[in-house]
């Protein structure tokens, strides 16, 4: 993860443990891991922090910002974990 993104994630309130989690998949929104049982709360907390970090951006800017893409990907993983029967 580049230094600027790391700083923005820290400013969003994410912990060193969270940063290590993001590093584990290179902050690639396409590689957000599937939550294991008991991880939904952590995913939700991370998603909320990322959404707060981009709340002042326009919709288009959110889609371009790494934080916005990660928040969307995390939200999708949460939705998939909560309702696995709807997976395509």
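Sequence proposed for the structure above (88 residues):
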């Amino acid at each position: 993860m580049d230094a600027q993104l790391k700083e923005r994630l820290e400013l969003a309130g994410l912990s060193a443990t969270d940063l290590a989690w993001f590093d584990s998949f290179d902050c690639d929104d396409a590689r957000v891991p599937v939550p294991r049982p008991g991880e939904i709360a952590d995913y939700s907390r991370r998603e909320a922090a990322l959404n707060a970090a981009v709340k002042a951006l326009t919709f288009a800017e959110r889609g371009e910002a790494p934080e916005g893409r990660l928040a969307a990907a995390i939200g999708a993983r949460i939705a998939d974990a909560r309702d696995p029967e709807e997976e395509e």
